[in-house]
Amino acid sequence: MSAQPAPTEVAESTASLRQLWRSGPAGWNRALTRARVLVPFFLAALAVPLVLQYVEDNSSWIGAQYWTLILATCAMYACLAVALNLVVGYAGLLNLGFIAFFGIGSYAYALVASDQIHQHYPLWAAVLVVGIVTLAFALLVGVPALRLRGDYLAIVTLAFGLIMRDVILELDRPPVLAGHQFGPDGLNITGGTNGIHLVQPFNLPTSLPLLGPVPHYRMYYWIFVGFLALCIYFMLRWRSTRTGRAWVAIRDDELAARAMGVNTFKYRLLAFATSAVMAGIVGMINAAQIFNAFPSPNFDVQTTVMVFIMVILGGLGSIPGAILGAIAFTVPPFLLQQFVFYKYLVISIVLIAVMIFRPEGLLGTVSIRPRKTMGGALELLTAETAIEASELPAVTDTEVADLEAAAGAIVDDPEWKL
Amino acid sequence: MSGRAAILEIRGLTRRFGGLTAVDRFDVDVNEGEIVSLVGPNGAGKTTVFNLISGVLPPTAGSVRLLGRELLRLPAHRITHQGVARTFQNIRVFPQLTVRENILLGTHHWTRSGMLGSVTFWPGTLRAERAAQAEVNTAIDLFRERLEARLEDPAFSLSYANRRRTEIARALAARPKLLLLDEPAAGMNPYERIEMARLIRSMRDRGLTIFLIEHHMPLVMEISDRVVVMDHGVKIAEGLPKEVHSNPRVVEAYLGRRAASA
Fold first, then answer.
1. Chain B residues within an 8 Å CB radius of A237
2. What pLDDT shows up at residue A368?
3. Nearest chain A residue to B253, by CA
4. How far apart are CA A245 and CA B114, in angstroms?
5. Tell me: the pLDDT tens digits for A156-202?
6. Nearest to B119 among A234, A248, A317 (CB)
7. Is-contact A337 A383, C-beta < 8 A?
8. Which residues on A lie below 8 Å from B181 (Cβ)?
9. How far is A323 from chain B (nearest CA, A)?
10. pLDDT band per the 50, 70, 90 thresholds, residue B208
11. Fewer CB within 10 Å: C terminus or N terminus of chain B?
């Protein structure tokens, strides 16, 4: 007798769900990035280790620590995917050296929080150092490289990532240039292939009010989730204000963005550097979590590819998509351990299927397939000839030359889009 | 010409592409509050003139002054700051941005809102964002019934004519002193073309100076205060629409060909 209003409510909610389904990926993203979805999501994510602990305490299942660690890895990759989404998804810059910034962050922290060079900075100073060092490297590679477009930028950043890996591997001894040795004989900055060990974790309280003692693994899970929430908050705010609009405008049509007064170089550099600093801080948290900074996987191209796959699978520019991608690539391998041998096979098949059926990614709106139009010349010609052909004189050779020359000079790259 | 101050002065503007001189010692003045049309056969170099004014292409030689300030050799985004906004022949709206965001891009150069202000809800940033949103409302004033319902739709979903309108609204939101319209009526049906003519006039009546390229001669004759004719990169005639229409060189270069082929 109290259930009378239920049917209409159900009808209403299914109707709004159907409408949401029809609104397409752009609508799904908008729905999933509302505060009333994200805040409960993050509160639930923070509660997960407590739930796992409760289940472990009250059943014969053991694995709360194991699964919290897996989820921490998942949150870490989600942070990286969100940071990569800023540079690739928003600003459209193909940064293949992305993971190097993660590695630089972890080594920068390891150097100021271990006995490697006998520095033990407080947390705030370490964050500052990591931020400044990753920013410096981002500017070092970004200022010259961001004058390039598309594929060329990808090649330069890829080279940067590989060079950084070699630098880290070689810096266990003093660098020698043209016969001159820099630094004393025993100089060992990065620890070479061994990496830097005994990195001190963040100096945080080991027990919290109400929650009691907090084990290390749970604390770092919370730190990763908290940092993820912070990154997402930043990304959403930027996207809804002037800076983010300028980034997407540059990605969509750089020439038009310039004509609207956007300093494209400045905004590309902002996106590149911000994403690098985000990745650097993730690297720092990782180094503190595992007490180590390793050259691999911190500088591996495979790790970059992995994060790229997460972003592309989830959808370029989509934040819920990035989280989804990170979950899809970190959790199932542990659930299906007996099939771990087939991990890359399955990943490849999933990825190929997504690219065939949804080239935009699960929640994306931008296709990674190149646009069909060839940018300038072709578009100009078809627009003119198709329209008032009868009213115009025939297209002459000089006109074609003019248009092509003009278009070629304007759009010095074809409208390359990721 | 009419005693009004020249807002745009182009002197000796030249651009070569390899062996092809697309624009050759081109001179023109555009006075404040005027509608000046640039016409000429295809390949005459009209769009190149626009690309040179808006800084999209660097010139080979010459000078372009807006209110006495030299524009050439400024980067394109600085030229927008000086008060020039343009539309493109092959419409260039940002496909993934909504109509509203497209128009907000027009306000980019005169609003101050940075990354830090954005995440900290800094009062200055919020004020800038509110001013930008208010400008959207002003910019679509002339297209209200066409664009208002589509404001939250991505630009790629718009019809051809609505993309044109969005592009013009975006240029208006930049609060330009000089508006460059590159074939605003191309691809429009006769009804939409009449609407466009009215629109261009009402923009002028609101104090804008308009320099436009247009192929549709009746439209040009109808709305222009002055007409400049180009052929092979050279200015061959300039004057009132009536004068230009009966100029034998123009008839030969432009209208004559059409008459011959008819």
1. 118-119
2. 55
3. A393
4. 11
5. 999 999 999 999 998 888 888 888 888 888 888 888 888 899 999 99
6. A234
7. no
8. none
9. 21
10. very high
11. C
Please judge whether A402 and B54 are an interchain contact, meaning their C-beta atoms are less than 8 angstroms apart. no
Q: Count of residues for chain A?
A: 418
Burial of A312 (0-12, 13-18, 19+ CB in 10 A): buried
The answer to whether B92 touches B64, Cβ cutoff 8 Å, is no
CATH topology of domain B1-83+176-262: Rossmann fold (3.40.50)
Alpha helices (runs of H) in A240-370, residue ranges in sequence order: 242-252, 254-259, 264-290, 301-314, 319-330, 332-335, 343-357
pLDDT band, residue A70 (cuts 50/70/90): very high
A88 DSSP 8-state letter: I
| Over residues A306-316, mean pLDDT | 90
Q: Which residues of A touch B118 (CB under 8 A)?
A: 237-238, 241-243
The residue among B118, B172, B189 with the most chain A CBs within 10 A of its CB, best to mutate, is: B118
Q: Quick check: B220 pLDDT over 70? A: yes
Enumerate residues 6+ apart whose C-beta is below 8 A from A224: A72, A75, A76, A79, A282, A285
Q: What is the least distance, in Å, from the CA of B3 to any CA of chain A?
A: 31
Token pair in block for residue B8: 């745009």
Determine which helix (DSSP H) or strand (DSSP E) holds B244, and give its type and residue range.
helix B241-246
Q: Per DSSP, what are the bridge partners of residue A389?
A: none
What is the average per-residue pLDDT within B53-82? 91
Range from A67-71, B116-120, B255-259 carrying the lowest mean pLDDT: B255-259
pLDDT at A24: 80
CB atoms within 10 A of CB A143: 13
**pLDDT of A357 above 90:** no
Range list for CATH 3.40.50.300 in chain B:
1-83+176-262
Distance CA A348, CA A306 (A): 11
At residue A373, the pLDDT reads 38
| Terminal Cα-to-Cα distance of chain A (whole angstroms) | 57
pLDDT at A40: 95
Angstrom distance (rounded) from CA A13 to CA A7: 10
Q: B47: nearest CA in chain A?
A: A406
pLDDT tens-digit readout, B2-17? 457 889 999 999 999 8
Among A252, A365, A399, whose Cβ lies nearest the Cβ of B42?
Answer: A399
Give the start-end residues of each E strand in A137-271: 176-177, 180-181, 207-208, 212-213
pLDDT at B3: 55
**Partner residues linked to A196 by β-bridges:** A293
Kindly list the domain boundaries of chain A, sorted by start residue: 26-369, 373-418
Name the DSSP class of B2: -
- Minimal CA separation from B96 to chain A, in Å: 7
By Cβ distance, the residue of B88, B96, B154 closest to A256 is: B88
Which residue's entry shows tokens 């000839």?
Answer: A385
Residue A371's pLDDT is: 46
Look up the pTM and report it: 0.86
Give yes or no for A274 touching B (CB within 8 A): yes
Looking at every residue in chain A, the average pLDDT score rounds to 83
What distance in Å separates the CA atoms of residue A248 and residue A87, rounded to the nearest whole number?
10
Which is more confident, B188 or A373?
B188
> Are the beta carbons of B232 and A398 separated by less than 8 Å?
yes
Show residues of chain B in contact with A264, CB under 8 Å.
Answer: 77
